[in-house]
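Bench log, entry 3. Co-assembly request; chain sequences pasted below exactly as received.
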Amino acid sequence: MENSRTYTYYPGCSLQATAHAYDESMQAVNKQLGLTFNEIDDWNCCGATEYFSVDALPAYSLVARNLSLAVQSNGSQDLVAPCSACFLNLRKTNDYMSKYKDLNSQVNQALAAGGLSYEAGALNVRHLLDVVIEDVGLEQIKTKVTKPLSGIKVAPYYGCLIVRPETGYNTEYPTHLDELMVTLGADVVDFPMKTHCCGGHMTQISEETAYELIRRLLQNASDYGADAIVTLCPMCQLNLDAYQNEVNRMFGTNFHIPVLFFTQLMGIAFGLSENALGLGSEIIPAGPALAKIGTVDEQKTRERPKRRDKKALPMPSMDSGGNE
Amino acid sequence: MVDYKQYHPAWGDRSPVIIGFLCNWCSYRAADLAGTSRFGYPATLRDIRIMCTGRLDPTFVIKALREGADGVLVMGCHPGQCHYEEGNFKAMRRVALLRRTLSQLGVHPDRVQLGWASAAQGIIFTETVKEMTEKIAKLGPLKWHDNNHDASPHLPPLPEKEATHG
Amino acid sequence: MSEEEKIGVYICHCGHNIAGTVDVEGVAEWAKSLPNVTVSKDYKFMCSSLGQELIEEDIAEQGLSRVVVAACSPHMHEPTFRGACSRAGLNPYLFEMANIREHASWVHQDDGEAATEKAKSIVSGAVSRARELEPLEPFRAPIDETTLVVGGGIAGINTALEIANAGYKVILVEREPSIGGHMAQFDKTFPTLDCSACILTPKMFDVGNHPNIELMTYSEVEQVDGYVGNFTVRIRKKARMIDVDLCTGCGDCWERCPAKVVDTVYEAGLGYRTAVYRPFPQAVPKYPVIDTESCIYFKNGRCRACEKFCPTDAIKFDQEDEIIVTSVGNIVLATGYDLFDSRRLPQYGYGRLANVFTSLEFERMTNASGPTDGKVLLRDGVTEPKSVAILHCIGSRDKNTNDYCSAICCMAALKFAHLVKEKTDAEVYNFYIDMRTAPKDYETFYNRLMQEGTHFIRGRAAEVTDAARKPEEVGKLIVQAEDTLIGKQRRIPVDMVILMAGMQPRHDSQEVSHRFGIGCSDAGFFNESHPKLDPIATMNAGIFIAGVCQGPKDIPASVSQGAAAASRVLSLIGKGEVEIEPVRAHIDEDRCSGCRICNNLCPYNAIDFLEDLAVSRVNPALCKGCGTCVAACPSQVIDGQHYTFNSIMSQIEGLLWDVRPNGEEKVTFQKTEPV
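Structure output for the full assembly:
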């Protein structure tokens, strides 16, 4: 028996534009998982990454308007945002308004001008990935997998935004997307730069800075043998995908690493059609990487278990990792 | 002196009075630690040291309320950490029943509260006294002998969980 | 009778501690108006000998029958003033303490008026309660001269030896197969660079051969009952699968054992051991144990190689755990610490990146009897590093893990830097938040290391990564940190990283603290009786603590605390008997209805039902005085001595002196009078 779960939903602007593939694949996966998202009526921009640095109070008030409208919708107290920037701004505003009384009263003063108000902490702002992993659960997801992603090596890329403010996941080195990918049957490579900056809006300000940041990520994924990068943030996806050829040109590299949303890979594992998942709209084609799915890694089967090198010191076991 | 009129006009010039029952091993020491650490809290609590919250005779609470206290705070060791194994579980049941009885008498159940602080948790003790003081301040003076105390048709029902707990 | 009591009230200034906030003279003057108060005085320091003499004189001259001192917490000076009363011939249980320092002046420093009013209430409550106090005699019980020491690290070893050398029996219980603790894993000790084994082994040997020490290794204390002087403990001696009477410790068994597993305890995961093993050559006792989880015979029923090769037939596969129940008079806990698990901070790469090591792994590596024979090598076991980074404060001073300082890591890091320099040509980089080298001669060692050319970078490392940005970083581990002295981000490529993992309470310390009836801090370190003046005793009389189980500390501090605990135990044994507070429940059998409600409530089964008399009776030896039965008795015929119904009711009245209903006739809940 599956319970259908209902959430209040804030899509954010990118899901209707550059990240429509995220939107489409999310809708398709939601159906499979029994998730219903009720979109907030008349929502506005979250302020993205820049506005908070320009003028904080209007920025918080702008976000708080969305929170206020979300409460008015009388739906679930869980407000879901699939875009990491939207998630951070909504969560940060909710959190800071609870923590700082002055900010709370100023923002509410601003909201009052529009006949609105927001009681800090009334909502629980959550990222889509958190809902999928915590509420649906990996066990449930596993039962939906009809086409395991065996054979494809993915680098899980979290970006810098989704583990703040305190979400309960490891801030410095999260692993929940890794676990989801393992559940889908994919081969997950260690990706030490999993929370490093994708360049954000620096692509518009300083190409040199941004492209170097993107190059590092691509280089690291390539060093670890990833066939694809999987992400959960429209900005990360855009930067790594759309500027990959520019990076190749600037640095003389030759990266061809497709960058996909985790919902797209979930859809594939659930056996959904590529069309329904927005595949094909990426700039670096995912075809060659996806073609590896289902191929048995011959290398791996032929390799005999390595004999212990008599001199080598044992590696620490990660099985019992973390005593808390 | 804090002006409690801002919470409820009936306070006039006086402050809320809360009688505390603190267990010797955890919460009394938490209060001592709050002192040595100079964690300030409202001067509303007048505490009594008992060996264990299990010693709390419900008549003590009634006595305190009818002798003029506006609230009673019972604090013990954390559940599972009782110096006498399980005295605090007994206090949990007794206080839950007492709160129900008091609310039937027209006394707001929030006037009697149960809390936990280990000997190392001076800050939790401090916070508990602050919260309790604010609650009592908002409720206003008890006036046990006026017969109508908190009498109001809007007394909140006790949560199910608490009534059946332990 | 209470109308005739003469009560003396003494308000202490405690220097400025109380008098700085509370109007002590005012309170003393006011207290004169309280019923039965014949004397009321204030004095600078009541706990001074002059202050105590004041009380003694007044008892003698004024015939005081009750004494109230308003000063600090009773946990501080109740024994002091009870002593004064006693000396003047007044029963010490007729003394009452009013805590106007911790519970008034110190917490209401910004509002002297409120603090003074509160102090009045506290004094009034104490006077009312004092009126109802009854004289009591403490119970006296003989003290069992045997002491239980739990934990065989350096702190426990030292405690056991001190007590045993004084001529008393000690039972030393250790969870692992050998005593020695963490110190046995080290090669050198800071700052003297003494050989750890050289100074520890003789002590271990002494423990193993001491006629007064009964050593129980591979054992755990499961249950503790009783009270100071008279504890009963239940110890589980886990099956070693070795008959120690036959075993000679020759080593034929482990040399033939085909099951090799990583030794995560003694070798800290850096080396291997067999399924039948002795943790290290100097182990005490010398007998091995069989680890049944990795033994091939226990897994699939075949092998028995050790049994075949044992020359004395000492292998006993059918051995079972043994339960020992014994009595002891005092208990010293010296259970030590767990190393912080560096895998909780994956950004530093431990477990992911081969050449990231923990501090304990590095200790084993530099140890001559360790997995690399003392050579500093990378994980491949061959290559010597050319550069080493030492990261301080891993799992210390970090609100995400442990917010306290682990106290030893700065010095251990300096020791490591020195050892790396001594054994290799490598450059060494220390990444630190603050260097903390306070105790004697430690700063000198720090200066010496700076002279030796170790690099010190003031900045907590952000991450350790193998993601290279520049050609010179390829194939290296890069440590990224903000150098806060120059205000810049730095990336230092190195071959090896050592994580200075912090000290944590044992994973089961909460459980253990509850088993022994002592308190535990939020972090999990055992609570001492007083942080300054009694860091050795606990709130449970007769139970003492020593070493890191009380808080992070180095070897000399652990040794000192172990000796201190021993001296506390010896002074109790020397007295010959213990005095126990007479706070006990008592049933008035004439009025007991025999309903038996109290019988099942008692957590210590201290209440017996006497079938022939149809009444319940409290066994005072088992009763601990919690008072649960007192509060539950429907006939109100159980009374808690010193916390009687009347004394508490009276204290409530006293505390509420200023808000009690005006003109209303005094209403008290009187206990039903005997028929």
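The two ends of chain A are 32 Å apart (CA to CA). Chain A has two domains: 5-128, 144-300.
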